[in-house]
Design goal:
Elements lengths: L6 H10 L7 H13 L2 H17 L1 E2 L6 E2 L5 H4 L4 E8 L2 H8 L6 E5 L17 H9 L5 E4 L5 H14 L5 E4 L15 H9 L2 E2 H6 L2
Parallel strand pairs: 3-4, 3-5, 5-6
Antiparallel strand pairs: 1-2, 6-7
Length: 207
């Protein structure tokens, strides 16, 4: 157990170390940085975090994060509402948007089916997706889920549910290596995988 010069310093390190990908050494550097900077820097950081937690909500349509009831993507008249790209979480929206190759809207599942982790279909935003499609506006659903066993299981489950609707169901081209998450794919590869998407049924029959 490391010895720290101050209980407050140790508490701050412990809190920073709870963040994903942040070890204790990195946490120490962050705390020391804040101590060296002007007090306003720490105050701005703290206030921003509190405001983020209090004011950020989920879009009533797609479950993207927003400060309003409806996110900017769903509210935009320039987006094609007839195409819905289904993703695992919000990081995937950021990744796809960075490609500038997609002009439809999104639907965030909030995870993928993973029995080993205790995550089933009822734990995901699947029913709201089906309700969106039932309005008749959607003409195509693109499944942009991880190329993992859990991702494929979720895709197949969705495909069976979507077969009740008169829509096209496609999947991003598998230019992303097995097991990679969308946020780690380079923008060119991800962009091409969206443009070159293929009918999901064809993908399933080829396996």
């Amino acid at each position: 157990m490391a010895n720290y010069p101050s209980k407050l310093f140790e508490q701050a390190v412990n809190e920073f170390a709870k963040l994903p990908g942040i070890g204790r050494k990195s946490a120490v550097r962050m705390v020391l940085y804040l101590l060296r900077e002007e007090e306003e820097i720490a105050s701005l950081l703290g206030n921003t975090i509190v405001k983020l937690r209090q004011e950020i909500r989920y879009c009533k349509h797609c479950y993207n994060i927003t400060e309003d009831e409806c996110c900017e993507i769903c509210a935009s008249i320039k987006r094609d509402k007839s195409i819905i790209c289904v993703v695992e979480d919000i990081r995937d929206i950021i990744a796809v948007e960075n490609t500038s190759q997609y002009n439809g809207v999104y639907h965030v599942l909030g995870g993928i089916i993973s029995p080993i982790d205790g995550i089933g279909p009822n734990d995901l935003n699947i029913e709201p997706l089906l309700n969106r499609i039932a309005t008749g506006i959607c003409k195509e659903v693109i499944m942009a889920l991880p190329a993992t066993i859990e991702g494929d299981t979720t895709c197949f489950f969705l495909y069976k549910k979507l077969s009740n609707f008169d829509i096209d169901v496609s999947s991003i081209a598998r230019g992303i290596s097995f097991g990679d998450e969308l946020e780690y794919a380079d923008e060119v590869t991800l962009g091409r995988s969206i443009i070159n998407r293929t009918p999901y049924q064809a993908n399933y029959q080829m396996r």
